Input
Amino acid sequence: MKWSLQTEEGHVEHVATAGLLRERLLQLHDQAKHDPLFAVLNSPDGSSLAIGLGREWSVLSYTATGGWPARHVHGNDINEGLLNYKFFGHFSEMPARYAVVFSDALDAAVSFFESGRLSEKLQWEDD
Output
């Protein structure tokens, strides 16, 4: 199995390099400015990292192979409210306190692709 990126159910794009992943996520982020969505990066071992696209602030949600552990990035506690994203055609709400600036989320997704591990530059919490 290879690394893949999904934005819709049944639509899978294979990702060959970290540079191509960064380029594609930036493109999707720009396209989602009026309709924010989640993209899911699937690793060969079955774990995945969902990244919120289309907003200045982004949330990240990790699921290990088999579904546990599941973690989310911990952003800034002063961020209040909810952030809405489309997740495979359905609306999903995430607490704004889970959000980090998009550039940090993008770097974390690329780091996950390169290492298969969660970025140590961000704080993660169990779901």
In short: Residues 36 and 107 are 19 Å apart (CA to CA). The first helix runs from residue 18 to 31. Residues 4-126 form one domain. The chain has one domain: 4-126.
